[in-house]
Amino acid sequence: MKKFKPRNLLFFCIQIICFPIFVSAGLSVFAALLVALLIAGPVYFICVVLRLPQWLISKKKKDTDEIRQSRIEALDTAREIAQEGIVLLQNDAEVLPISKGTKLNVFGRCSIQSFYNGSGSAAADVTKCVPLISALEEFGKFELNRELLNLHKNYIQSGNASVADNGQEDVSVVKINKGGAEFLGKRPDLILEELPTDIFQRTDLFEDGRSMLDHAEAFSEYAVMVIGRGGAEGFELKADNLKLSIGEKKLLKALNQSFEKVILILNTPNPLELGELAEYPSVKGVVWMGMPGNTGFQALARILCGTVNPSGRLADTWVKDSFSAPAANNFQTLKSDGTWDEKSFHLENYKEKQGYFLQYSENIYVGYRYYETRALMDDRYSYEDEVMWPFGYGLSYTEFTQKITDFQETDGIIHLSVLVENTGEKVGKEVVQIYSRPPYTGRIEKSSVNLAAFEKTKMLAPGETTVVEFHIPVEELASFDCEQEKAYVLETGVYEIHLMKNAHESIEKRDWTLEEPLVYRMEKDGVRSTDRMVAVNRFDHAKTMGADLNRTWDQESPAFAGPPAACYHASEKTLQSLEGTVKTDAQAGYGASDLPQTGVKLPQKILYFEMQGVPYDDVKWDQFISQLTVGEMANLCGNGAWHTEKIKRLGIPKKLMPDGSTCICSTLFSGIVMSNAGEGVIYPCPVVLASTWNPEMGQAMGEAVGKEARSLGYHGWYAPAMNCHRTPFNARNFEYYSEDGVLAGKMAAQVVQGAQGQGIICFLKHFVLNERESSGRNQLLTYCNEQALREIYLKPFEIAVKEGGARGIMTSFNYIGDRWAGADEGLLEGVLRKEWGFQGVVSTDACVYPHMDVKKMLIAGGDLSLDSLGGFVGGNIKRVELLKAAKNPATKVIITKNLQRASKNILYAIALKLKED
């Protein structure tokens, strides 16, 4: 008999209370009973199933001392990240820094209505973010043109052109200043229409008949213009959004005519096409800052006034035409009106609203790997015509020299020493960048420039020196040969190791020669030192159709010309895979005798607290898991939206896992499921963190996030987000780090270490090939050859698992070839667990779309269903599917065995202890 739960008394109590009231109101006994039932049901659902009262109470809960202290630390850390991640891109005639107290004219709608954060799963309340205007006044001590600010404010609020202070609210806290996270409408505002230039030129705003531009010119020789772009989950930036808008061009032209010192502030996570800046000679300074979060504008003000010397370096290549990148031709089809055709690349012989495909025909030539390789290898190519600022580029207010002082290879490790000296007149930090150039035989595609290692120096005073040491395993220079050896390979020849200012400018190099090839295959040179099992081909099902890009740079290649006609017709094998059934016991070779024991009553019950710190391979885990019933395991694995379920009888607590990327985030949806409205500080977007090129900043962010999460009652974090900036069109790029996997992986590994050291499980997402939002939830079949998959797209995850020790992974919505990523055994078991040695929990993304079969997930090596809809109905969706499958005679054994495996992975992951323990 099912045990009666005391909370169910609420249902009957509501009826008992309502029934006499309705009878006394004149209803018949039957009608009163019916109405009482109709009221009791929704109240019960809201109070017991949704737990809405708990969430509302948590919203009103006062901050504890621990919360306040963790928030102070988080705000400081966020500001430090911005200070080291903001990039000075142009500084003609040393227009920057500007002395404190200087008068400034600030132009641009985004100076008032800034993009602090993006929308979607990373969205958060931006109303507490420090506005640009406040930061300039407080931290830069700048005197701002108030009439100019009033003009912006008044026009934004009412559409009226007026320079008067209307006595409403301060310009720095305009109510509609919600940032990219809070705009309403069907499509988020990823770009805001600039104020009409003619309002700055009107002669009726002042009694003297002069224009706002005339007054601004008289007020100060400096004009600061802010240009912004937003970010959003589920959307792409339109191709034209990466160009200067008509309004921005008009305003820039006017400023160019009125001022000799124009400074652009780029409030955008995505690179813009700014080749046109050459037409505006008055633009002397350009500063990129991404999305600033809570305190990033304070960092910007400090940089503008010289309190802080900028030391950020670009994490992406900025080009003059985004369509010069081969990946752009396989993103979506561009319509004649400049918008994307969201029905691009659809399988013509499959369902109308499902079965889209994407070809990564550019091979490994993504970002700088394309531009730099082609510039070095193609005499016909003009690099300067296409690239604005290279990957790794950034300026400083001081000067540095770098020199290799020692270079040697011993026992498979390249040891490199670099002497850095501050030869300028101001204190500052320098980034040391090491790249490799492997020999090219034509057998394996190789970029001529590959980031191998990096480090940021400590603060150096003028004349001060420091030595930066690198120890690079030669195996990290290997390429993956997916055609012949089907393994990682180091071909014979000369490997050039370059010390570079950025991906384009080499300072000096040293050579390392390999006489005999190294093939990392068991029958040849064995496993790489960081792998548990040798890496082999696991994704032949994801090969692209047509030839992948190679160094011939053939313009007829699908990389430049788009997918060939054959791609639009799915093979019978692909169609069968898309409609595939769940593997049965018979197909797996299981018989009735293979059914594991469940719900075992041990002589001495093992409670969960006893499992903290127990090694993953310890037999005690098998004993502990055997105690779980099938129903408990189905609930644990199937009901995992922003939490893991508690099992009271074994002392297993409920663990809360908020979303994030830019912050600890409790949204309307996740907050209700968690019954927790606690929300953390918004950090500068991850691409800003990557642009610090300082792993210590990643560690600091992870620790601060971890402390904040603990103080708010959380135990996990759906972050960091690790996907690649394959193109600048993805509006979700603000959540991701870089176009380079080494930079992204090294930074994220430190974030993971910091957060997990505080007992907070990190879920790396979205595993893998989630570089486009459109159709991503409609069976998007993503094709990519195994070399590019391993060297570009898996690389940041690999580093964050191996070096960061991540205990959580979140898979992606898309398919890898014709297999859903969340149910790709080669990915989850082959690469992640067997090769990389991952020990932890693999979760789905929001498990609400038809192709996300939770049974396939479980059998392929997944563990947890992020059942976001089930979270609102007591978990009664995916857990029910698992329970039915575990009772089905055809799948009883395979599901039960995998429920035990998955339960162990979940419970091992959440048994994470604090670092100090």
UniProtKB/TrEMBL annotation:
<dbReference type="InterPro" id="IPR002772">
    <property type="entry name" value="Glyco_hydro_3_C"/>
</dbReference>
<dbReference type="GO" id="GO:0016787">
    <property type="term" value="F:hydrolase activity"/>
</dbReference>
<dbReference type="InterPro" id="IPR013783">
    <property type="entry name" value="Ig-like_fold"/>
</dbReference>
<dbReference type="InterPro" id="IPR036962">
    <property type="entry name" value="Glyco_hydro_3_N_sf"/>
</dbReference>
<dbReference type="Pfam" id="PF01915">
    <property type="entry name" value="Glyco_hydro_3_C"/>
</dbReference>
<dbReference type="InterPro" id="IPR001764">
    <property type="entry name" value="Glyco_hydro_3_N"/>
</dbReference>
<feature type="domain" description="Fibronectin type III-like">
    <location>
        <begin position="430"/>
        <end position="503"/>
    </location>
</feature>
<dbReference type="InterPro" id="IPR026891">
    <property type="entry name" value="Fn3-like"/>
</dbReference>
<keyword id="KW-0378">Hydrolase</keyword>
<dbReference type="Pfam" id="PF00933">
    <property type="entry name" value="Glyco_hydro_3"/>
</dbReference>
<comment type="similarity">
    <text>Belongs to the glycosyl hydrolase 3 family.</text>
</comment>
<dbReference type="Pfam" id="PF14310">
    <property type="entry name" value="Fn3-like"/>
</dbReference>
<protein>
    <submittedName>
        <fullName>Glycoside hydrolase family 3 protein</fullName>
    </submittedName>
</protein>
<dbReference type="InterPro" id="IPR017853">
    <property type="entry name" value="GH"/>
</dbReference>
<dbReference type="InterPro" id="IPR036881">
    <property type="entry name" value="Glyco_hydro_3_C_sf"/>
</dbReference>
<dbReference type="InterPro" id="IPR050288">
    <property type="entry name" value="Cellulose_deg_GH3"/>
</dbReference>
